Amino acid sequence: MTTSPVLLRPITDDEYPTWLERAAASFAAGVGPARGLTPDEALAVAYEQTEQLLPEGPATDQQLIWIAVAGDEPVGSLWISTKAKVPFIYGIEVDHAHRGKGYGRAIMLAAEEECRRLGYTRLDLNVFGDNTTAIALYDSLGYAVISQQMRKDL
Predict the structure, then answer these.
(1) Which residue of 1, 3, 76, 129 has the lowest C-beta tally within 10 Å?
(2) Quick one: CA torsion of 22, 134, 96, 41, rounded to 10 degrees?
(3) CA distances from 29 to 25, 52, 67, 85, 145 (A)
(4) Count of beta carbons in the 10 Å neighbourhood of residue 108
């Protein structure tokens, strides 16, 4: 599949509340099963952790939140923290209507380019083990497993 290029632009204050809802719901969908939480518990954890990381919303220092745009149309979003020596992707999302069109790859490539532009030579992320689509994408882009947590149901 040919990757459609995207432009990353900073999120606006008006876009932030809707983005926050989607980001929390997305994180809750992954963290809930991983931690054995109910959907309500997972959503509460997601909001709590997101608000701790973004106390000033999109103006929080060392937190970069972008809207990914193809042409004039928003197709997804990206959140990278630059607090650590290696930037960390807290969230990447392709809007439901645009999935399967190569935008996940395009957003990741734009993220890598932005981090290089800022002087970084590495980029970290976490992916839940049941997210096989994302794992395949990251594998295809050359990301390597550096830590792995495992579990067995008894």
Answers:
(1) 1
(2) -30
(3) 6, 19, 21, 28, 22
(4) 23
Closest CA to 111 of 60, 67, 61, 59: 67
Phi, psi of 50 (to 5 degrees): -65, -40
Q: What is the mean pLDDT of the chain?
A: 93
Alpha-carbon radius of gyration of the chain = 15
- Cβ contact 62:79 at 8 Å: no
pLDDT surpasses 80 at 2: no
pLDDT at 4 over 80: no
Please determine, for residue 16, whether its predicted confidence score (pLDDT) is greater than 80.
Answer: yes
Four-CA torsion 97, 132, 43, 36, nearest 10 degrees: 150
Better-predicted residue by pLDDT, 79 or 5: 79
Round to whole Å and give the CA distance between 42 and 49: 11
For residues 100 and 82, give the distance between their C-alpha atoms in angstroms, rounded to a whole number: 29
Percent of the chain with pLDDT over 70: 98
**Average of pLDDT values for 64-79?**
96
